[in-house]
Amino acid sequence: MKMHKRHRPRIALISLGCAKNLVDAEVALADILSAGFDLTVEPSAADLVIINTCAFIEPARQESQAAIAAALALRQPGERRPAVAAMGCYPVRGMAELERLFPDLDGIIGLVERDFTPKICRRLLAGERVRCVSALCSPGVKDRKVSATPRPRLLLTPPSYAYLKISEGCDNRCAYCSIPLIRGPMRSRHADAVLAEAAGLAKRGVAEIVLVAQDTTAYDLDRRGRPGLAGLLRRLLQGTEAPRLRILYAHPRHLDDEVMALLASEKRLCRYLDMPIQHVNSRILKAMGRGYDGEHVERLLEKLRKIKGLVLRTTLLAGFPG
């Protein structure tokens, strides 16, 4: 009689939200794969569905809720397969809300706990209800260092580009923003770790490395007392063969002349800057807690205009209450 081997547990991961969240998902997938699980892109074929959630604004929470509901709807009446877990930002910001909206949710997993994804997967697949959410904004988190060793990643971007996270968390504390409450204070990665990961991406054939963080221009401010993005960019340009580097999530308060000089002079540094100015009225900017006034924005834009071919992507908040 022919014996059929029982298949290895299949896991599907759905990642929502920003590029930083996508990097977290890539690390989690590499951990899951190396632990001996199979991956599937079809939630209906999975034994466990993980939704890497976003909770930054209401539409993001609604999108996360819809993805969770869709995964739970895959179950046949009376069954508890696939197991379904919400991971990431939403559990940190709204664990109680998730419990209320989805009482059948098997797992609610925070940001810190993603470092233990394979272990949590085993618990969920064994039928255990898992609730593990640590608050990154609690005292002592500032001392929680970011890993000095690059974590393996299963890239989800096209071969032409990949994201490279250079720090975690944020210290800006803008009045309208929940990121510090979700992601905690800023913790910059060591430059050696960033360089090693960038070199690895370049060797894999990645043509464009996109630097991301909650505030890329504040890189190293938490350790040195002043921004160090320019120094990191020089090391990346000298120490990797990546054809292009791009900067996302810049902040007007921390963009300095050194970075702008590199944007003007370095051909491998894309003449593109993603920098939300949010407003130009000094009174509103003060209420927003942005740390600069309208004149600062105008001076900065005049400097950027002098960089030939520079493309500026920005956002503005209209209707800020108060």
Can I get a quick summary?
The chain is an alpha/beta fold and about 325 residues long. It has eleven helices and 13 strands.
**Global shape:** globular
How much β-strand is present in the residues?
Answer: 15-25%
Spatial order of the strands forming the largest sheet: 2-1-3-4-5-6
CATH architectural group of the largest domain: Alpha-Beta Horseshoe
- Give the full name of the CATH homologous superfamily of the largest domain: tm_1862 like domain
Low-confidence spans: none
Describe this protein's structure:
This protein has 322 residues and is of the alpha/beta class. The chain folds into two domains: 10-132, 3-Layer(aba) Sandwich (Rossmann fold), CATH 3.40.50.12160; 141-313, pyruvate-formate lyase- activating enzyme. The protein contains eleven helices and 13 strands. The strands form three sheets. A six-stranded parallel sheet has the order 2-1-3-4-5-6, sandwiched between helices. β11 (244-247), α9 (257-265) and β12 form a beta-alpha-beta unit. α6 packs parallel to α8. The mean pLDDT is 91.
Layout: helices, strands, pairs:
Layout: E1 10-15, H1 19-34, E2 38-39, E3 48-53, H2 58-72, E4 83-88, H3 89-101, E5 107-109, H4 117-125, E6 130-132, E7 161-165, E8 167-168, H5 179-183, E9 187-188, H6 191-203, E10 208-212, H7 221-224, H8 229-239, E11 244-247, H9 257-265, E12 269-274, H10 282-288, H11 294-305, E13 311-313
Parallel strand pairs: 1-2, 1-3, 3-4, 4-5, 5-6, 7-10, 10-11, 11-12, 12-13
Antiparallel strand pairs: 8-9
Helix pairs in contact: 6-8
